[in-house]
Amino acid sequence: MQVIDAEYATRTRLTIPSHYNGVRDGLRALLDSVLLRSLPEDGRGNAEIVLAEALNNIVEHAYAGRQGEIEISLHLRQNELLCQISDTGLPMPGGTIPTGSLAASGESVNPPEGGFGWHLIRCLSKDLAYQRIGGRNLLSFSLNTQQSPA
Amino acid sequence: MQLLAEQRGEVIVVQALGDRIDAAGAIQFKDRMRELTQLPSLRVILDLSRVAFLDSSGLGAVVAVMKALGPERKLELSGLTPTVQKVFRLTRMDSIFIIHDQLPEDLLPAKPGQCR
């Protein structure tokens, strides 16, 4: 009989300071965690892309240069990685997540230099949700760890 | 991010020596690339084979470098690792660059003991 400890390394929490180097160091630590190391290479890559975009957005827009903390909580459940990110910065404008649509394709003469972040998040995640509760932004999404949806 | 630039004939080959081009390093990357590509050349190839990760800020910086080269000089990329390749593909930026699987044979640095 095989005993599987269902709770073994299925949860990881990390708090980082709200600047870009904090995000870089935080991503390194998360990617090096037992939890994310247990994912297939493709799932790990997707997690790094989506987490990086979500965290950089918080540094750039929610805290906008001010000091603060960002809490990241990851939970692996079957083939899904559930991600929750919270901060005490400014609320999302309009209380909703940007659509993240890319500029018109075929724009090879003057391609955009930004606006890719939410597009990448939406491409690679599902169940994307945002709430503002008691002065905190709560962003949650899940990632399929087995196969890239894109 | 350290960048190694070498002029090989009509081509400037820049090798990214760091493992990521991200929000923390995007501006510095962009500025250094501009300095390194000031000398005239027909082509500029950026070798990304050591870069394991690139976020949307890094992607924006690569696009800005391409624009700064002007219409006469294309920025070519080589050696995209899987996650970097995915970011280019999902944002459709793979269609605006010439992308090589690896550095073209004639541009590879000479191996020790090899006459070229």
Write the layout of secondary structure elements.
The complex is a heterodimer of chains A (150) and B (116).
Chain A: E1 11-17, H1 20-31, H2 34-37, H3 41-62, E2 69-77, E3 80-87, H4 117-124, E4 126-133, E5 136-144
Antiparallel strand pairs in A: 1-2, 2-3, 3-5, 4-5
Helix pairs in contact in A: 1-3, 3-4
Chain B: E1 3-8, E2 11-16, E3 20-21, H1 26-36, E4 43-47, E5 53-54, H2 56-68, E6 75-78, H3 82-90, E7 98-100
Helix pairs in contact in B: 1-2
List keywords for this structure.
heterodimer, A: alpha+beta, Heat Shock Protein 90, five-stranded antiparallel sheet, 4 helices, B: alpha/beta, Transcription Regulator spoIIAA, 7 strands, 24% strand
Short description:
The complex is a heterodimer of chains A (150) and B (116). With 150 residues, chain A is of the alpha+beta class.
Please tell me about this protein's structure.
The complex is a heterodimer of chains A (150) and B (116). Chain A is of the alpha+beta class and 150 residues long. Chain A has a single domain (11-91, 115-144), classed as Heat Shock Protein 90, CATH 3.30.565. Chain A is 31% helix and 27% strand. In chain A, helix 1 packs antiparallel against helix 3 and helix 3 (41-62) runs antiparallel to helix 4 (117-124). Chain B has a single domain (3-102), classed as STAS domain (Transcription Regulator spoIIAA, 2-Layer Sandwich), CATH 3.30.750. In chain B, the strands form 2 sheets. In chain B, strands 1-2-4-6-7 form a 5-stranded mixed beta sheet, with helices on one face. A two-stranded parallel ribbon of chain B has the order 3-5. In chain B, strand 6, helix 3 (82-90) and strand 7 (98-100) form a beta-alpha-beta unit. The longest helix of chain B has 13 residues, at 56-68. Chain B starts with a strand and ends in a 16-residue tail after the last strand. Chain A binds chain B through residues 20-21, 23-24, 27, 41-42, 45-46, 48-49, 52-53, 56, 59-60, 102, 105, 107-108, 110-114, 116-117, 119-120, 123-124, 148, 150, and chain B through 20, 22-24, 53, 55-57, 59-61, 63-64, 66-67, 82-83, 86-87, 89-93, 95-96.
